[in-house]
Write a structure and sequence with these properties.
By secondary structure, this protein is mainly alpha-helical. It contains 3 helices and no strands. The chain has a domain of 74 residues. 65% of the residues lie in helices and 0% in strands.
């Protein structure tokens, strides 16, 4: 997310080309924003960027947790099957069954 906002290479309104080679952003002049309006807009953009980054990190952590739980489920399945002397379903087949079950749980069907 770095580079979002008015930087030398990333104006909040989009690049007009040549940015980074002709100097800094000039969006205040191009879009008739007052310096106060421009700073308020930058502050809002920074806040939203921070929020999106935080949410992205949370989703990454949830993804890690789900993957860990699935791995534990697959290991438990293999253990139970070995204790009961039953055929072990492959991880990919078990994943399909788990996904279908989760879909039913999430949709209430």
């Amino acid at each position: 997310m770095a580079g979002i906002g008015c930087t030398d290479n990333g104006c909040i309104f989009g690049s007009t080309g040549g940015m980074g080679t002709i100097g800094g952003c000039r969006c205040v002049m191009r879009h008739a924003l007052s310096p106060i309006e421009c700073n308020e807009l930058k502050t809002k953009i920074r806040a939203q960027t921070t929020l999106v980054e935080t949410q992205g990190k949370m989703l990454e952590e949830q993804d890690k947790s789900v993957k860990k739980q699935r791995k534990l489920l697959f290991e438990a399945h293999r253990l139970v099957c070995s204790l009961l002397s039953e055929k072990v379903i492959s991880d990919s087949d078990l994943a399909v069954k788990v996904d279908a079950w989760l879909q039913k749980v999430n949709t209430g069907t």
